């Protein structure tokens, strides 16, 4: 520490001496090295930099299929950090928020699997942002042999949204959330240069459907498509595929006031219970129908047939 | 119903205790009625009551479905949207998002139509995006010699390729089998014709030999040249018709007729499987079988030293 003080003093003395000298000023010495005179920083603070970091975790007792889906998401998002499994108690309350803060992330994708059957996906913007809980259905992972496409790992995707995202405020909010989470930041370390795949987010029947396609277009140069090549463009599906059913939108991260509740949402437990009831009522209906028939027969007697006594003899 | 009672009245009234009782009774009745009212009012709101109390001061628009009522806080949603969205002057290159017009009349249950709608959305989106990227002048298409880590491993892509090829092969095989079935019908008829021809020829041959013998007998076995008397087919041109199928590499000393190693390798598939098999077994076991082919000094066997020490050392009987 003493040395540093001395150095400062000498520094302070030198410029005073050299002020009227001919030699140019020595560059100022800082802790990080030599720096020239500070330049004007006009526009640097205005440049937008996407610093989105996504934390991807899951709950314990997750199914193999959903685990593979989570791993696929990790490979699709180069700006994500994968964390260990979270205990079931920690899914409520502030623990998840703390975890996100700890890992220095700005949003979170939490895959919660219940009863080894149902997958719920939480998407949250972490410091104070909104969060959404989805029910995930129709999951097909990238490992399926029918999905034959392939693309660079870490290349920035093109995002396409169907225009019915702009019709209602809750869809607009979801669109913004999806865009911020799924768009790879431009100057990310792990981002690869070219654009060779496209994400599709589309709303059908109040569900959000997700698809991922590889783009193959005939080209010879890297910055120009061949003439007429846009017509010959083909898309091959890479996967994964899933369908999201929004359940609730909350004002805070993993909690907070409910901003939106889906009126068409039926919980999977309820669905299963209804199906069972339907099946159970089959027998009861049969019995009822039998008794009804008996009563009907008793009340309306059949007319005696003309051929009944034909073979009596 | 509220009763405003001045404190003086209570203190000075001789029937104060009765009034007290009445008051209490009234109050309890009143409160119970209020509770019932509350229940009726908050029937559908109970689920959202906590949130309502927390989020006071904003309009809570209730979305009443025929069966359900649910929360729909438009202002809150728009507020949050304003909170999280990026500034408006962010360039498109950061977002890379395109909005596509879609038709609403896609049936969700119809798989093909649904996937087609997604496909067209993606196609339209990439076209628009590529036009923009081209105008920006940045490289966006991967060159063919750019090798980097892909999202699916090479081994996985090999598996995919294998399954695709297997599918293609199955389809081709099915086609071939169908064609073979058709051809078999035709072939049967052709075969029948050929058999008849051969039988006829054989008969003719035997007849001609018999004739020749008779003629010779008649002429008293006179030798010499009898030209032009008998036409012997087999001398002239048409020799005994052997099967024109060449068995490759049949050497003169080969008594098995080239069929020694034939069936063991790969049998011919299809219709002539059984015929081949019959031929092979005939050659091996018919008419007393193949004699003495076990040890042969041929070009192949002189250099072949593999038969030494062939026996399994475990099976060797140890001579005690």
From TrEMBL, chain A:
GO term, biological process aspect, one: ribosomal large subunit assembly
A GO term, aspect molecular function: rRNA binding
PANTHER family to which the protein is assigned, alphabetical: RIBOSOME BIOGENESIS PROTEIN BRIX, RIBOSOME BIOGENESIS PROTEIN BRX1 HOMOLOG
Coiled coil: none
Protein family: Belongs to the BRX1 family.
Main location per the UniProt record: nucleus
Subcellular localization: Nucleus, Nucleolus
Basic and acidic residues composition-biased segments: 8-45
Residue segments, region Disordered: 1-45
Protein name: Brix domain
Keywords per UniProt: Nucleus, Ribosome biogenesis
Taxonomic path: Eukaryota, Viridiplantae, Streptophyta, Embryophyta, Tracheophyta
Listed InterPro entries: Brix, BRX1
Stored SUPFAM superfamilies: Class II aaRS ABD-related
Domain Brix: 52-255
GO CC terms, sorted: nucleolus
Domain of life: Eukaryota
Organism: Dillenia turbinata
UniProtKB/TrEMBL annotation, chain B:
GO biological process, one term: rRNA processing
Chief location: nucleus
Keyword annotations: Coiled coil, Nucleus, Ribosome biogenesis
Cell location: Nucleus, Nucleolus
Comp. bias (Basic and acidic residues): 181-210
Segments of skewed composition (Basic residues): 266-276
Disordered: annotated span: 181-320
A single cellular component GO annotation: nucleolus
Pfam families, A to Z: Ebp2 (PF05890)
Biased composition (Acidic residues): 224-234
PANTHER family: RRNA PROCESSING PROTEIN EBNA1-BINDING PROTEIN-RELATED (PTHR13028), RRNA-PROCESSING PROTEIN EBP2-RELATED (PTHR13028:SF0)
Similarity-based family: Belongs to the EBP2 family.
The protein, known as: Eukaryotic rRNA processing
């Amino acid at each position: 520490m003493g040395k540093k003080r001395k150095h400062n003093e000498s520094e302070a003395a030198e410029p005073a001496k050299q002020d009227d000298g001919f030699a140019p000023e020595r560059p100022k010495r800082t802790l990080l090295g030599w720096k020239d005179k500070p330049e004007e920083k006009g526009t640097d603070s205005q440049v937008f930099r996407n610093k989105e970091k996504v934390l991807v975790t899951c709950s314990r007792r997750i199914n193999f299929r959903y685990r593979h889906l989570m791993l696929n998401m990790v490979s699709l998002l180069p700006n994500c950090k994968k964390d260990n499994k979270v205990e079931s108690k920690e899914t409520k309350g502030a623990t998840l928020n703390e975890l996100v803060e700890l890992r220095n992330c700005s949003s979170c994708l939490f895959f919660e699997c219940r009863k080894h059957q149902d997958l719920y996906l939480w998407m949250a913007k972490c410091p104070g942002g909104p969060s959404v809980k989805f029910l995930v259905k129709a999951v097909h992972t990238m490992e399926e042999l029918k999905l034959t496409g392939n693309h660079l790992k870490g290349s920035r995707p093109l995002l396409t949204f169907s225009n019915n995202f702009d019709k209602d405020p809750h869809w607009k909010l979801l669109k913004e959330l999806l865009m911020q989470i799924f768009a790879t930041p431009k100057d990310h370390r792990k981002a690869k240069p070219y654009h060779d795949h496209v994400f599709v987010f589309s709303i059908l029947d109040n569900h959000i459907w997700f698809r991922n396609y590889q783009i193959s277009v005939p080209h010879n140069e890297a910055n120009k498509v061949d003439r007429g090549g846009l017509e010959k463009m083909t898309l091959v599906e890479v996967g994964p595929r899933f369908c999201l059913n929004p359940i609730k939108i909350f004002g805070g991260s993993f909690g907070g006031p409910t901003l939106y509740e889906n009126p068409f949402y039926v919980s999977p437990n309820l669905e299963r219970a209804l199906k069972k009831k339907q099946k159970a009522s089959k027998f009861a209906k049969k019995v009822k129908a039998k008794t009804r028939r008996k009563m009907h027969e008793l009340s309306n007697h059949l007319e005696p047939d003309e051929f009944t006594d034909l073979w009596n003899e | 119903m509220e009763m405003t009672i001045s404190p003086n009245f209570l203190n000075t009234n001789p029937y104060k205790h009765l009034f007290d009782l009445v008051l209490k009774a009234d109050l309890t009745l009143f409160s119970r009625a209020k509770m019932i009212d509350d229940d009726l009012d908050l029937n559908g709101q109970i689920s959202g009551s906590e949130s309502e109390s927390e989020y006071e001061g904003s309009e809570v628009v209730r979305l009443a479905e025929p069966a359900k009522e649910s929360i729909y806080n438009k202002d809150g949603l728009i507020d949050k949207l304003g909170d999280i969205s990026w500034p408006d002057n962010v360039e498109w290159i950061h977002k890379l998002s395109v909005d596509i017009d879609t038709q609403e009349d896609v049936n969700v249950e119809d798989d093909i139509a649904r996937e087609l709608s997604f496909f067209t959305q993606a196609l339209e989106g990439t076209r628009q995006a590529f036009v923009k990227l081209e105008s920006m002048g940045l490289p966006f298409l991967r060159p063919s010699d750019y090798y980097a880590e892909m999202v699916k491993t090479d081994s996985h892509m090999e598996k995919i390729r294998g399954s695709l090829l297997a599918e293609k092969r199955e389809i081709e095989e099915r086609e071939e089998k169908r064609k073979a079935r058709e051809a078999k019908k035709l072939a049967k008829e052709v075969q029948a014709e050929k058999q008849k021809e051969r039988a006829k020829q054989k008969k003719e041959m035997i007849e001609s030999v018999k004739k020749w013998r008779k003629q010779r007998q008649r002429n008293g076995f006179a030798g010499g040249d009898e030209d032009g008397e008998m036409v012997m087919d087999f001398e002239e041109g048409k020799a005994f018709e052997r099967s024109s199928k060449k068995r490759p590499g049949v050497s003169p000393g080969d008594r098995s007729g080239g069929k020694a190693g034939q069936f063991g390798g790969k049998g011919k598939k299809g219709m002539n499987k059984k015929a081949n098999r019959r031929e092979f077994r005939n050659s091996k076991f018919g008419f007393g079988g193949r004699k003495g082919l076990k040890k042969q000094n041929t070009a192949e066997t002189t250099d072949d030293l593999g038969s030494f020490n062939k026996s399994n050392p475990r099976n060797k009987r140890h001579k005690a």
